[in-house]
Each structure stands twice: as structure tokens, then as C-alpha cells.
Amino acid sequence: MRVAVVQMRSTAGRAANIATATELVARAAGDGASLIVLPEKWPFIHGPRTLEGAEPLDGPSLTAARGWAREHGVAVLAGSVIESRPGGLPCNTSVLIDPGGATAGVYRKLHMFDVDVGGVAYRESAATAPGSEVVLAHALGRGIGMTVCYDLRFPELYRSLTLAGAEILVVPAAFTSATGRDHWEPLLRARAIENQAFVVAAGQYGVHDDGTVSHGRSMIVDPWGVVLAQAGDGEGVAVADLDFGRMADIRERLPALRHRRADVYGASGAPASGTSKGGDGPT
Q1: Does CATH number 3.60.110.10 belong to domain 2-255?
Q2: How far apart are CA 279 and CA 283, in angstroms?
Q3: To 5 degrees, how large is the angle CA 68–CA 69–CA 73?
Q4: Which DSSP letter does residue 31 get?
Q5: Residue 101: helix, strand or coil by DSSP?
Q6: Nearest-angstrom CA–CA distance, 134 and 163
Q7: Of 41, 149, 167, 235, which is the active-site residue?
């Protein structure tokens, strides 16, 4: 399977963002990609004006993405959109669309980015509500684990997806420049290595309208942790072929997933039956 990551510098101009994405998706499809992953908030990104960018799942952004899927005969992971919800805060929502334009999965970001980094206070929870479900979707005959950006720092989510059958872990993101310099690639490679799965991560790049700066460096990582492809600076596309035979071979020769001790620490890593200091102390 050939996959592509689309890297963008989105603004508060939805029409312009959709036009840019249309061009980049066409380029990726022309390069032979059958799964194309867009970044987080690709149709609209502007922190203080997040609510202005909210739209329903049948709004203009996902309508465009469904059109791309049908036109090019590809699956589109439509990064994330700000999903409007009557009577409540919107969600940061990722939608997987199959080659026929139908919805294959809907995931609402679980972890809110409420942090202080690079001299900027980010409070995602002030404008969007968290989701409540882990979502494994299926397209092109493969299990696709859906996550968004800050989720990357929570390995238990990725392990849950892998145990449910994920072979590809997708990470649409707008990773900050301040954290991305040191954390983006190591975290992506760690999630790939520990779950022996492909990680396909599409990021925002550069300075946005609200003054925030995204790291970029969108990449595709194999189950051994090898970076197969990486986008450079600026808007663009990176493409790589996923070898599922290699993934199966890695899982067979280094069966770490089968060696898990869920009887000791539980399915999610929590102690299975309380805590204990052990026998006679440190050894």
C-alpha cells in the first residue's frame, strides 16, 4: 500500500485552505497513494477564533474531502475539522473516508492540549470538548487506528488500538515548533516501535494567522522505527510504500506484543490487582 502525508500551513481562510488541500491531495494521488492523510485542523486554524471555524460533518470541508476520495479512488484521512455540535462546544474531529466517499470512521480527539510551552498558553479545552471513544476504523482492507496530535503523548491509546487490530496508526497534527524540535520524531518512532505498526503523521507547518508556529516534518515510520519518508520545510507531500509482510515478519521474529504481562500490569498498563512493594526490597 502506498500512503501519503499532506503538509500544510493552514490559516483562518477556509476556502483558501480547501483549495490548497485539493491541489496537494491530487498530487499525492498522482504519486500513486491509496491512503492520503491530512493534518489537524487543515480547513481552519486560528486559536482565538476556533469557534468561527466550526462546521458540521456534512459541511464544506468534509464534502470536499469526500469528493477527492471519489474522484481519485483513494481513502482520505481528513486530518481533523472543528465539528460543530448544537448546545455544546465543538469537537476536534478526525474522519476517515473510503474510496467511495463513505465514512469509514469518526474519531473525536481524546486529550486536550492545555499546556504552556514556548511562551504561549494553549487551552484547547476552552474552545473544544474531548471525545470519549477509542476508534479503530477499516479501509483498504487494513485496520487504521485514529488519533490526533497531543494524543501522541499517551502510549496507552496506541497500545489499545494495536491490540484491537490496528496496523496503521494515523496522527494528523499541528505540533508546536517549541515541542516538535525535540519530541515529534522520537514520539512517532517510539509509537511505531513499541506497537510494531506503521505510523503515518501529517503535520501543519510554519507561522499561522494567530502567531503560533507549527513544526511540520510530516513523516511515515515503519514498524521497526525507520523513517520511510519525511516532508521538508513548507507545504508539500511525502509518499512511502507500506510493506505489511515486513510488519508481520517483525512481529513474528520479535514477539514483544505476545510477551506482554497483562496478568501483572493489566491490559492498559495499570496494576492488575492493586499495588505491592514486592518481597524483600530492591534487587
Answers
A1: yes
A2: 10
A3: 115
A4: T
A5: coil
A6: 12
A7: 149
- Sorted by sequence, the CB contacts under 8 Å of residue 75 that are 6+ apart come out as 34, 35, 36, 69, 96, 97, 98, 99, 104, 139, 140
Query: How many residues does this entry show for the chain?
Result: 283
Is position 40 annotated as part of the catalytic site? yes
Q: pLDDT tens string for the chain (283 positions)?
A: 999 999 999 999 999 999 999 999 999 999 999 999 999 999 999 988 888 999 999 999 999 999 999 999 999 999 999 999 998 999 999 999 999 999 999 999 999 999 999 888 999 999 999 999 999 999 999 999 999 999 999 999 999 999 999 999 999 999 999 999 999 999 999 999 999 999 999 999 999 998 999 999 999 999 999 999 999 999 999 999 999 999 999 999 999 999 999 999 887 665 554 444 444 443 3
Please state, in angstroms and rounded to a whole number, the distance separating the CA atoms of residues 77 and 41: 12
Name the catalytic one among 41, 109, 124, 235.
109
Q: Catalytic annotation on 277?
A: no
Q: Could you tell me the pTM of the whole model? A: 0.94
AA identity, residue 180: G
Cell 522520537 belongs to residue: 186
Q: Which residues contact 181 (CB under 8 A, 6 or more apart)?
A: 215
Contacts of 79 (CB under 8 A, 6+ apart): 6, 37, 38, 39, 40, 41, 42, 94, 172, 202
Asked if residues 170 and 197 have their Cβ atoms less than 8 Å apart, the reply is: no
Distances (CA, A) of 207 to 174, 213, 281: 11, 4, 52
- 149 as an active site residue: the answer is yes
